[in-house]
Amino acid sequence: MMTREQLEQTHPNYQAVAEQANYHYKSYVGGELYKDGNYLTQYIGENQQPGNAYARRINSTPLDNHVQTTIDIYRSFLFRTLPKRDLGLLINNPLVTQWLEDTDQQGQDLDSFLKTANDLAMVMGSCWILVDKASYKVETEAEAIALGIRAYAATYTPQNVLDWYYERNIAGKPVLKYIKVMESENSSHANFTVWYQDSVHKYRVGKHEDGTYNEIESAEEYENPLGYIPFVFHAPLKSPVKGVGFSLVADVANQQRFIYNCYSEIEQHLRIASHPTLVKPTGVDAVAGAGAILNLDESVDPGLKPYLLSPSLSTTDSILRSIDKSVEAIQRMTHTSSVQATMGSPMSGVALQTERQMLNAKLGDIADTLRETELMMWNIWLDWQALNYPEDFSIEYPDTFDMRDEHLELDFLMKTRSSGVTNEMFQHEVSKQIVALTIDDAELQSKIYADMETHEDDFEEHEMIDPISGKVVIVTTEEQHLALEEMGFKANEEE
Question: Concatenated DSSP letters for 90-126?
């Protein structure tokens, strides 16, 4: 068992990892959590101004959240196509069904759980996934199902994993020998769990009013039946140090902070320009503002007359240009220029293709890490449930990701269909591509294709005329007829 002092000890890398994870998480969440981080640079003497000028400036500065946008883009591609799982003989096992449908015992299915865990890891650099099972003993599998006692998964952020230790086994593979996590904490106490390969220790520690720890209030020890620690370390970008990962949005967060400070400067410029500072000598009565009237004696020295001091708004333009450059830098480093609308110069075809390839490679690496993590989770789950690993068991994540701009493609196809090309086969193929682009259901696609074939057999070729230009088009398909009709063409009555 540990002493209180031992419980308080952390991994040599813990402090740096926790601080960075906290910063990146606040950058991702934004809102009040980001404002509480005080990421605006204070002006000289600002903290000495009356009325807490720094706090007012924080409240009035908007946040353009590029970290969240980047993560949302990555997630949308990663999980656009869900992983394919061949569970073999496990498919009919009711415990497997429960695991797939409620992985964390809190209502999240396996895909949703992995999506949430991966979001945390992309933002914070890593997360730890525990696959655990209640220690309550049951006699039969039916009793376990009835009581809901089964293996489940839980996620721990880097802030909650205080200490850990890896050691290489005889084969040279790093094996987790020890891990200490904080389960929960409030103003009065904290709960810790320490895992070893052969045992699990739980502690409840009291806290003083100042937040420091008191003595251990309770301690519990029980056997670890697995013989190994059931934690999975998930990090899309691992570091050389075991148990430490790198955030995918670290540089984005720094650029976002710069933009955040730029917006504060713009807000200050606009506020001061709208309400200029009145400069007057001591003893001269004067006020500024809408409707203010200032009466001065004609004998007053011109050098003593009050005047308004306003900043030049030209500075604002240079700040806006700096923001644009930072946004371009964010999109360049995350390879997302091709999937985000920008005000900059359009990318060449080669540059666009190159960037999409780089983004696809990055997403492929993340998907590979997700697959490895899920396989390890399944291995632990099977051990907890005392089930054998099926020979035909497999999990496949996508290795390529669809990055088409569907709106642009659809617009192109609609224009192509109305281009005046009357070849029946050409029109038919264009129509099929429109169906494929707009309908995801494969069964419904097949029905539409069959219906198109039926209607084309019955379609009678005819002419349509533009009443304005007099242009005549020979129509060979119903789709072509409808498209021309939308453009104002009418059936040619003189035909």
Answer: GGG-HHHHHHHH-TTSSS--HHHHHHHHHHHHHHHS-
